[in-house]
Amino acid sequence: MRFRVIVQFLLSVLALGLRARPAAAQAPDTAAAPPAPFIVGAYAQGSIILAHTYAIRHLVASHPTGFELNAQQQTTGAAPWHAWYRFPKIGVAATYYDFHNPVLGYAFAISPYLSKSFWQGPRHTFNFRVGTGLAWLSNPYNQETNHKNTIASSALNATLQFRLEYDYALTPHLGLLLGAGLNHFSNGATAKPNFGVNLPSLVLGLNYHQQRPVPHRGTFAPAPPDVGHLFYNLSTSIGFRQRNEADKHRYLVNSLTVAVGRRMNRKSNLLLGAEGFYDRSLTAQLDDTLRTSLARPAVGKAGIFAGHELLFGRLVVVSHLGFYVFAPYKSSTFYYERLGLKYHLTDRLFAAIDLKLHRAVADVVELKVGVKL
Q1: Looking at residues 66-77, what average pLDDT do you find?
Q2: 25 pLDDT band (50/70/90 cuts)?
Q3: Three-state DSSP class for residue 150
Q4: Shared domain check, 264 and 200
Q5: Percent of the chain with pLDDT over 70
Q6: Range of the domain at 350
Q7: Could you tell me which residues come within 8 angstroms of residue 5 by beta carbon, excluding any fewer than 6 positions away?
Q8: Is the domain of 107 the same as that of 195?
Q9: What are φ and ψ of residue 283, in 5° steps?
Q10: Of 155, 175, 209, which residue constitutes the final position of a domain?
Q11: Is the pLDDT of residue 289 over 90?
């Protein structure tokens, strides 16, 4: 009973973070949703290390193995977005990985996730799961004691998970789970070297279902009133990055963003915007490489971008593609990408964490605050 209470509390906290906007911003909906049942699982994982770059090829000889404990709660229609996404599951997983390599050691990760069923039968369920969180790696790069670990140079890292799952009902409450997915660990270039690690994985485990099949309020949920309306975002960010292994200093990176957006439908916003960047590591890079007799270019940059936002109540998944229109110092590609998570603290105020990339290589992790007008 105590374990059940703990699981329900953790999932309730996660569901609270994904709740919809306040009732005033939604169309009236007075029907009560059925209670949300929970699922707990225990899985074993077997993986290989993907040699995505030559710099980590010396580390791909081992076959990491892992173990995962997770808890999920089935959405049943308490918020309109549950029906818009056909009632996904909200979960949190704790994963342990042993790399079976003294250079890499082991990893421990905590990752909230969403699991979406795309086919269901009386005893069969196919799911797609995506999650992100934090990971701790035991043996990061050290120039004196562990210089062969080119995967990660910090103990604290971000993790991403993508997985296809098949759940077969052995009994009304017990399910056999088979899965295939990808686990990724990286520190987002806050320290270098940072080539990251990709672990294609096979998964085998058991799920306990509190209730199967799951009741829900119905498939209809009204569209929000702001569909088709424009809005404006103003935000600023802070981040830190390291130039290379030899320079241990963490340089401050700032940005300022102005954007206009339009809510296209229940699930999506589209945005256009402009932003400026100031990366102090580029000043240090110029000091090392530029001859004093040459004119010193400005290190500030300005760009324009187009973006998409995938909406889950107050939580938003952000993706941008941008192009530099002002970059006197050519330190990177002419374009950049951004992936992130945004959370609306109120109807006006939001916070976000973004990963800015150049040609899919991490440039900086940005912590952002902003206002929506």
Answers
A1: 94
A2: very low
A3: coil
A4: no
A5: 90
A6: 230-372
A7: none
A8: yes
A9: -65, -45
A10: 209
A11: no
